[in-house]
Every structure is written in C-alpha cells, then in structure tokens.
C-alpha cells in the first residue's frame, strides 16, 4: 500500500540521515488516517497561504490607489487680473485673431476654443496675459485654463467676436 514511499526511505538511509530499525514497517508508523490528516493539513495550509497573500496584495494595491488631498493643500486656479476686458486683446492675439476662432464653450474651469489654423496660436502670448495654462488636445481645439471666471470670460469673448 505504501510502496510509493519506499524510495524516499532508501534515499534517506543511503545518505546516512535516517536508518530504519530492523523490525521497521511503514504500515506501523503511517496509518491511513494519519496520512490523510497530513495531506489535508498541507492542503489547508496552502489554501490559507494563498488567501493571505491575495488579501495583502489587494490591500497594498488599494492603498496605492488611495489618494486624498486636504482642502488646504488644493491648488485653486485663479486669474491674476480680475479685469477680464483687459485680458481680451492679448487673448485674441494669442489665439491668432478673431478670424481664427470657430467656436467657444466653457466647461468647469476651462475655456475651450475651436480654431481654424493650429499654427497661428501663440502659447507664449496667452501665458504672458496671465492665464495659468494652455492645453492643445487636438489640431482644431485649444483649452485655456482660466479658473472660476471661465463662463464670464466666454461671454465677454463671445460679445467681442459678435461685435466685429
């Protein structure tokens, strides 16, 4: 019944690690219930080890994804100059003139301007006017980070474009 274990005992006795006594019988030492308990314990140990490692990995991953910013540490984007009428001429110059503007819309704190010619947009001119940032997601659109005054600036720029 336990013939499959005999090579291990032969290896151990050949290396001098263990020697079987003269009246040694494997059936006397390893009864089937004890063998089943050992195998079951090993399977249970491996299963619990798997669950523990999986839980720790998920927890580490969740902690890496957790990102909390306190209110005092948030960066609030605002325009330096509150006079929006004074910002319109450099903004129009930076966008390539009135003829280069196709559409206007504001979302959140950004002014999204549809443009005709991508090469006419001068980013340095827009930044010098005091706008915190400029994003170019596509060849036909420029997004200007304005802050809380995005809607008001869109309305003023729309009025300026409709007057001409």
TrEMBL record:
Record's signal peptide: none
Chain coiled-coil ranges: none
GO biological process assignments: phosphoenolpyruvate-dependent sugar phosphotransferase system
InterPro entries found in the cross-reference section: Glu_permease_IIB (IPR036878), PTS_Glucose_EIICBA (IPR050429), PTS_IIB_1 (IPR001996)
Cellular-component GO terms for this entry: plasma membrane
Keywords of the record: Membrane, Phosphotransferase system, Sugar transport, Transferase, Transmembrane, Transmembrane helix, Transport
Regions crossing the membrane: 34-53
Protein name: PTS EIIB type-1 domain-containing protein
Domain PTS EIIB type-1: 85-164
GO molecular function: protein-N(PI)-phosphohistidine-sugar phosphotransferase activity; protein-phosphocysteine-sugar phosphotransferase activity
């Amino acid at each position: 019944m336990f013939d499959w274990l005999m090579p291990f005992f032969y290896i151990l006795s050949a290396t001098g690690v263990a020697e079987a006594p003269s009246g040694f019988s494997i059936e006397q030492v390893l009864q089937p219930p004890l063998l089943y308990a050992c195998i079951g314990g090993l399977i249970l140990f491996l299963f619990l080890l798997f669950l523990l490692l999986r839980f720790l990995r998920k927890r580490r991953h969740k902690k890496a994804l957790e990102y909390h910013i306190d209110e005092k540490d948030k960066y609030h984007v605002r325009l330096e100059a509150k006079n929006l009428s004074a910002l319109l001429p450099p903004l129009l110059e930076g966008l390539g003139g009135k003829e280069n503007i196709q559409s206007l819309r504001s979302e959140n704190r950004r002014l999204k301007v549809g443009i005709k010619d991508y090469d006419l947009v001068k980013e340095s001119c827009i930044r010098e006017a005091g706008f915190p940032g400029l994003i170019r997601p596509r060849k036909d659109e420029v997004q200007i980070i304005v802050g809380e005054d995005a809607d008001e600036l869109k309305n003023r720029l729309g009025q300026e474009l409709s007057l001409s």
